[in-house]
Task: structure prediction
Amino acid sequence: MATLEIHDLHVSVEAENGPREILKGVDLTVKQGETHAIMGPNGSGKSTLAYSLAGHPKYTITGGTVTLDGEDVLAMSVDERARAGVFLAMQYPVEVPGVSVSNFLRTSATAIRGEAPKLRTWVKEVKGAMERLNMDPAFAERNVNEGFSGGEKKRHEILQLELLKPKIAILDETDSGLDVDALRQVSEGVNRVRETGEVGTLLITHYTRILRYIKPDFVHVFSGGRIVESGGAELADKLESEGYEAYQTKGGVTA
Amino acid sequence: MADNTPAGSTTDGAIQVGGPQQPIDARVSAPASYDVADFPVPHGREEEWRFTPLERLRGLHDGTAVANGGGVKVEVSAPAGVTVETVGRDDARLGRSGKPVDRVAAQAYTSFEKASVVSIPKDAVLTEPVTISVHGEGGVAFGHQVIEVGAFAEAVVVLDHTGDTTLAANVEFLVGDGAKLTVVSVQDWDATAVHAAQHTALIGRDASFKSVIVTFGGDLVRLHPRVVYGAPGGEAELYGLYFTDKGQHQEHRLFVDHDTPHCRSNVAYKGALQGKDAHAVWIGDVLIRAEAEGTDTYELNRNLVLTDGARVDSVPNLEIETGEIVGAGHASATGRFDDEQLFYLMARGIPADEARRLVVRGFFAELVQQIGIPELEERLIAKIEAELEASVA
Ligand SMILES: Nc1ncnc2c1ncn2[C@@H]1O[C@H](COP(=O)(O)OP(=O)(O)OP(=O)(O)O)[C@@H](O)[C@H]1O
Ligand SMILES: [Mg+2]
Result:
């Protein structure tokens, strides 16, 4: 069973006046089949955690370890991490001009699966997944994220999640910018993947709204670059009624 | 296309309306002429030379380059019915499309010894392309080719440039009334070659001319595709595709002279650059003269910069001397394949070099489809793939 273990992770970014520490010792273990919600105020470092796990070059790891089934994730390049089974649905997906969605998906599936998917079954697979996410088939011929609305970008991220079947899925604010229908469709997409029991999910969010559709097994409150409290689904209800205020002093966030 | 312009690139476009004091064709340092003596030796600050590293022209610009017999081997293969001749300097069929416009083209006109004349007879519709292969054999050469297409004939001509040479040339296309000519010029030179050429097309009444310029190789390539219209109703489509690698200078200077009513032109050039001191220059001069009522023109240049250290100069320039036109426009953009795009693709398991190839392939594919010749599409895509395999790693 796949397990992602994050231990005492410290991460800095290069700021104007030298390096600035954003993550200040994150500890978290995510197992296949589990769903962990990470909730925290703006600027608390949630995206930093997500990007650091995926290997974005902007973030420097200054301490700690991350392993996937014992393998050192931090030693892997970005593409190696993806092939090892780490998937990041981005808060702000990037436009890639000149590359069509269909070409992108196929190239990516080929890389992740280690062989080109058989054309006939692949076409069906993509078509089916797009239909379930209520995406117009015309998207396949558009350039990746180019001119996509916020909601379309998020659907496209979840489409990739469904097709790439990672071991660990990190969803960074997949709920932001979605209207109610889109939120429901996107959540259903995530749930379809979760129901296979083969993915460990790290659901990063600011609001509790998405947790009505995606039920977490664990909720962690993130503040000041670390996890300040962990609990079950009931912790989300507490955040819903009380907000993050209590944690912002507790977590010592000044930013 | 990302809007971020890489450091050191320029994309200053201009549209001038209402008769500029100095039209495009007068902005050069000397009027067009067949005689090299009519042009001063350029020093590098002239408008038409300011982007070109003169020292890398190996003397083509100052008279010190002398043909030495071992320059290029020219072979023409043509389907039945097409006449291929090698003629001397005094042949009356030479020089009809127009005069050389800069010193290097005039040097070529003054210095060539033999010219090839390819004639496609009236009404002939060729099912096979005419291929002119120009293979560099290391020395200095001055070339001249004339491709004449009779009225209502249809032909595809491929100019294939390979090997190593220092070559200055003029290529003339005379497109008869109602004829259709497609020219594909592939610059697949060795990394050491120097190639400067003027391609001038004179387009007859209701005739169509399509030019596809594909530049991959060479140390310095400077091409000057020009279009002039002999009668109304002519149409020109000028496409180009270049891949500028480390240290290469590839310059495409287009001029479409709308001096005749009811003619059309469409220009689309795309280039990808990578590596230190890769330098691409694209000049798109379109002049709509007062008498050219009913003109419809559009020009576009897009560049994709894959790595730091490459430089693009893209200058579209549209001058309009009459308001009685159908349309006129231009666009130029230089974008970067940036780290965020690379990260996104890699985060989906795609290795870095494959990610770059994916982006470049996609970038060119649009243009290749637009060219609209299926046989050529395959060849171009194969060419791009080969170039990508060899260089984007
Ligand atoms: N290049 C940088 N220079 C300085 N500070 C930075 C830089 N990049 C990120 N930060 C800071 O790091 C902190 C954490 O940012 P991050 O994007 O991880 O927060 P977040 O929890 O995802 O916020 P949100 O809820 O708004 O998405 C913020 O205070 C941010 O300003
Ligand atoms: Mg964030």
